[in-house]
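Late entry, written up from scratch paper. The run itself happened at the end of the previous shift, but nothing got recorded in the book at the time, so transcribing now.
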Amino acid sequence: MFTRLVAKSSFLVNGSFLRYLSSSPASSVLKIGDVLRHKRTFSIQDVGEYSKVSHDVNPLHFDSESARAAGFEDRVVHGMLVASLFPRIISSHFPGAIYVSQSLHFRAPVYIGDEIVGEVQAINVKENKKKYIAKFSTKCFRNGDFLVLDGEAMAILPTLAVEEVHPHNTRG
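Output as recorded:
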């Protein structure tokens, strides 16, 4: 699937961001097929903070016994918390982007402590009134290659210039 991609840059900033672009080496302009990634490990603190703002206090997220009784290996990270990687990736590379829509398919659970790689791939880009409407394929992988979440996102981008991720905006 990604065999046609040429690595423009592959970098890790504070252990979290990876970027692969099919654009020419002299360019940092988003093109169809470009992939942006962010790696994150969700903690019990992340789950607790998300629960406070979402008011989702389902015991599957906090009680191992309840999670196992429901058929899970252990406590499960909120699916929407995992999906929050997608707007994070887009907004960090395109400041001022407006997230318009997101479809999600939860394929497998994410457990506290799992390393998750969120990935957005540009699949369509159209110019509209000096802004750009971009459609992205969105995926999250557990431990590198196991698909746990996928879907599609649409965002209005102020520019197609892909900004580098700096250490001050790589939190979480």
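The CA atoms of residues 20 and 118 lie 13 Å apart.
(Scratch paper discarded after transcription.)
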